[in-house]
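Weekend entry, working from home. Most of the wet-lab plans are on hold until the incubator is repaired, so I used the time to fold the two sequences that have been sitting in the queue since the last round of cloning. Logging both here for the record. First:
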Amino acid sequence: MSSKNYCPLDHTMNLIGTKWKPIVLFNLLDGPLRSGILQKKVPGISNKMFTQTVRELEKDGLITREVFPVVPPKVEYGLSERGTSLKSILLSLDSWGQMTLQIASIKRISC
């Protein structure tokens, strides 16, 4: 067994600390979404980055991916139990962002 020590914050940031991961996770808080709909809710993400992001989140156990055997193919992403445990953190980050945007008089857009 490894005797490495890990910083909890570093571990957390490795899981969710990219530009796109928190936004993908945030958009899944209200329930599963089809792949195309989820990608449209993440402003500015390329197809390549979307695919890479959801694959990493799935590999880390934060989201689930369900493929439906229909034509055309339907893929749906949702939060796993582990991903759902981030809900309060994501909502707090969103609230903090809303507050700071309001203070700075910057127009808010939906994530």
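Second, folded right after the first finished:
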Amino acid sequence: MNAPTPQPLRNYDMNELKKLDMAHHMPAQTDYKLQHELGGSRIITRADGCVITDAEGKSLLDGMAGLWCVNVGYGREELARVAYEQMLELPYYNTFFKTATPPPVKLAAKIAEKMALSNPDLTHVFFNSSGSEANDTVFRLVRYYWDLKGEPKRKIFISRRNAYHGSTVAGASLGGMTFMHEQGGLPIPGIEHVDQPYQFGEGFGEDPVAFADRVAQSIEDRILAVGPENVAAFIGEPVQGAGGVIIPPDSYWPKVEAICRKYGILLICDEVICGFGRLGHWFGHQHWGVKPDLIAMAKGMSSGYLPISAVGVSKKIIDVLLEKGGDFVHGYTYSGHPTCAAVALANIEILENERLIERTRDVTGPYLAKALQRLSGHALVGEARSLGLIGAVEIVAEKGTNKRFKGAEGTAGPIVRDLCIKNGLMVRGIRDSIVMCPPLIITEAEIDQIVDTIEKSLNEAEPVLRAL
């Protein structure tokens, strides 16, 4: 698990790759003008354990598990072998023609087993290729369900400001990030956004229970404003990841569930980041004991080794589909891809066999929380928070407040992030915070390295930020 990083399997011409990257490649969510000014992408060529290495030979401790996803770490030969063996036997077939293949059938049963730990009514699984596609499936399935139920007016989804539910038209609309809505004339109709449970930013100094009451009440207020008979579902991430690792107060999710049940609307948990061990449970909602009607999942499902996602669906929805009949005219070429499913199944077996979820809950998660508290005395740190193996450090201009640097408001995170990368740590800067989400195989020594590097980078950033 902590073997030395192997030598590259092939010799790349870095200059040629840089030229090709600039000439033809469009990276995701990128300012292409700035990308060209900087000379193109950092080319990552290999990885092992929790370490990634670029084409110039610089190694970085990966504090982001790729993009919130490489839960079992890099270099897992057993996953490569499973993919190879499945490709030889049956690399691909679809699920359109009243057909299925063994891997997704077995994977669906395994996922149902894990969902049943919190809600035995979650019995069925629909496969996709990405978290965005999973949320598109949720969107269409929920509206189809209410149509079949004879309540076609129930079209409205309630989501939260600053939520992230993907980059497709429906996913970006469900999300509450206004800078995404500004591109493409989003959100599409039928989506309402309410307060997020971001206490440091929007309830600083407020009693956590009172704050949870207030932001949960905004959901009920919006339901009443648009009419309960028009509301289909509420969707939320257990912990908002791309929004800045927003960890809600403990009383928030039970209150949200109670509101959904009060008005008979569906409860959807977007587990794309929080699923498969990130919070120390198979699914993040299990931390608060709530019982969603649908779950979107991806990322840690295969640890990013191959693209696959899924939607967990409750029996009450399945029962309506079985009773009413008719095609659910939705699906993808790669829904239930046998090779992706085989790798995901093997990935779950690794999580089970190495007890990585229990380790996150009992060992490394608490260790990260304790280690982050070493930063609490730093002049730039307003809050250091975590749950399981996901965390954030809030950067402030004035200790004891949540005031930001006026000359760099919204940019302090990227400034510190760039210094972290220079110092050998890959993390993400979101507005005025640094966020982290390391592989579940991370060691205590590597957690110390994450925190030490952030501290060093904060020290280097402080004179820069105060001069702005």
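Plan for Monday: verify the second prediction. The chain is about 40% helix and 15% strand.
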